[in-house]
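Let's sit down with a protein and look at its sequence and fold side by side. Once you have written the record down, we can walk along the chain together.
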Amino acid sequence: MESNSVNITQADNTIVVIEPTGNTITIVEQNDSSEVTSQTQQFEGTVITQTSITLEIEDSPNTVNVIPERGVTEITVNQPVTETVKIATIGPQGPVGPIGPVGPSGSLILSGSIDNDVIITGSVKILGSLTITGSVNGEFTGSLLGTASNAISASYALSASLSQTASYVETAQTASYVETAQTASYVLNAISASFAQTASYVETAQTASYVLNAISASFAQTASYVNPLTQDVQITGSLDVSSSITAISFTGSFSGSFEGDGSGLTQIPASGIVGLNLSQIATTNVTASVNEGTDSFKIVSGSTIPFAIKSGSGNISASGDLSIKGFPSVSESLSSAGKITYDTASGDTFDLTNIQVNDYDDNVAINFINGKLTFTFGTPEVPSSINSSLSGFATDRFNKVTDNYTINGNWNNGGYTLISASLYEGSTLLEEVGTGTSLSFNTTTSGSHIYRLEYTASSPLDSSLYKTTDTVTGTLSKSDPTSPSISRTYNVQLRSGNNIEEGATGSIAFTTSSGALNGWEYTGGSTSPSSSPVTVSATGNVTIQATANYQSPSGDNNPQLTRTKTSTATSSRIRSLRYGTSTSTSFSESEIQDIDEWVNNIGTIVVGTTNPNNQQFTVTTSAEYIYIIYDSGQSDLSAILNVNNSNSNDINVFTKTVVGNYNVYRSNNLSTTSILYKLTT
C-alpha cells in the first residue's frame, strides 16, 4: 500500500483503500486485505457502489460515507490528503505588451556663447570650431589645437538637459520651460519664464532647464542638454562629456584621454609621458645613459657594464672585445691616430706606437685569427683528461624499459686550440662543440649502449693536430628476484633453535612466500613436502624445500626472461651432552635416543650443548652407575674432575665405549654418592 493512500475501516471489518494512482478505489470485505485480490473501480463521481457497499464522498473535509445494506456509516478520514498536479506540456505564452512611445528627438544649434557648465550625456559633433577658455572633461576624437597640458579625460558634460534649437541665449538664469523658440524678437532679462512658445533672442535667462526646439542659439551660457551644434560655441566654464567629442579642430586646454591626430598638440610636459627619461635610452634589459656618476656614457646589460667612457679622461673600458673602425693597424704609426699603452709586470707603462715581432726560435709562434694576435712562447701543454661518462644511466632494468640519462664529455685543452669535440653512438653524431672544455647530450633510450667522445685540437706552435677518443658503455644488469622464504613452527620434544635433538619426535608446520620481485612477475611455485605439517621421526634431518617461478613483465624484455628460485630449510639433528644414573650396565643407541625415558627416569639432557669441555654438573647415585654421554664427533675426555675432592681426576674410575654416534662414559662400580663433576677434553 502506498504511503499516501486513504484507509477507511468500518465496524464490520470492511477496509476501503483509496490509492493515489489513477483515482482508483479498492474495496476489500475481509479482515486481512493482503489475502484478498480486490476489485477496483475508477473514481468518476462522488458515489461509487461496489458489491453490497456504496461509497459516497461529501464536500465536507475528510468525510467519506460508507453505505452498506444495513444503513449509513460516516467515516472521518484523518490522514492528510495531498493532491499533486502534473502538467504534461506547457501552455501557450501570452501576448507581448505594447511598446511605449519613443521620446522626442531633434538637434540643438547654438550660435552664441555659453558662460555656464554644459552637461552632454551623448556625443557632440562639431562641424565648425569649438573654443573653450575653461576646460573639457571627456573623450576627444579629432584634431586638437591648443594647450593639452592637463588633457587626462573628458567624459562628462556638466549641465545641459535638452536644447535643440535656440539662436541666442546669453544669460538664462530662470526659464523653466522653452518648448519651441522660433520667432520672438528680443527678451533682454527673463528672470522667470515657465513656458516660452517662441523666442528668437534671450539675452538674460538665469535658469533655463529645458529647451525642446530652438532653431538657432549662437550663445548659450548654461544648457543641460545640447544635441548637434553647427555654430561656434565658447565655453568659459568646464565641459564634461560622458561619451566622446569629435571635432575637426580644438583650441584650448584639455584634461582627459585623447584619441586621434595629435600633430597640433603643444606644451606637452615630459612628466606627462609615462616612463620617459630624457637622459637614458632603454630596452627590455639594456640601458644607455649619459653623465651618470663618473661615466660620460655607459651601457648597462643586466648586472654588467660591457662599455663605458669615463668622464674627463676619455678612457674607454669594455668587458668584451672592442673593435674600433678606422683604428690604425700594427704596421702603421699610432702617434697621430691614438695610442696603445703597455703595462709591465712591475707596473710601468709605455705608449706603443708600433709592434715589431722578431721570431728567431722555433718554439715561438705568432697567430693572427679573426683579428686576434696571439704570441706563443715555448712548447704548449698538450690536451689531457679527455673523458666520457654517463650520468643517470639505470643498469637495473629490462632491455625494453626506457631510461633518461646524459652522456658527458670533459677535457683539458692545455695550450692547444680546440677544433672540435663530438659525441657519437656508432656513426651517429649526437653533439658537437668547437669551444669550451665540456659537452653533454641528454637522451631517453632502452637497452645497453656504447658512446664515443672524439677530440681534435691544434697546436698554436705549428698547427699540428692532437686527436684522441674515449668510450663509455652503459650495460644493463637486471637484478634477479630473490629466493622464496620458508617459515617453520615446531611441535617436537627437544630442540635448540632449528636443531632437533636426536631421538625427538613430533611435527613441523611450514608456510612459504615468494621473495622480493625486483620488477619481475611471480608465476607460481611448489614445496617439498607438498603439504604442511611434516612429521618428525626419531632420527634424520628434516628438510623443507620451496620453489618460486618468475618472468619478466610482458613487453619489458626481448626475449621474455624466466627465473626459478629455490630455498631449502633444514632442521638438523644434534646429540647434546647428557648425564644420569642407572642400574643398567649398558644402553643401546635406541635406548639413548629415548627422550622421555632418559628425561623422566635417568638424568638430564643439556639441549644444545654438544661439546662437553668445561661443562660442570652434580650427579647423585643410590647404588647406581654414573653415565656421561655426548656426541662421538667431539673429542674424548681428558679429565673428569671431582670438584668436591680438590678437583681430583676420576677418569680412571670410568670406562669409555662408543654406541652408535655417542661416546659413553660409565663408572666402573655401583655407588651411592653425590659428586660435582667438571669435564675437560
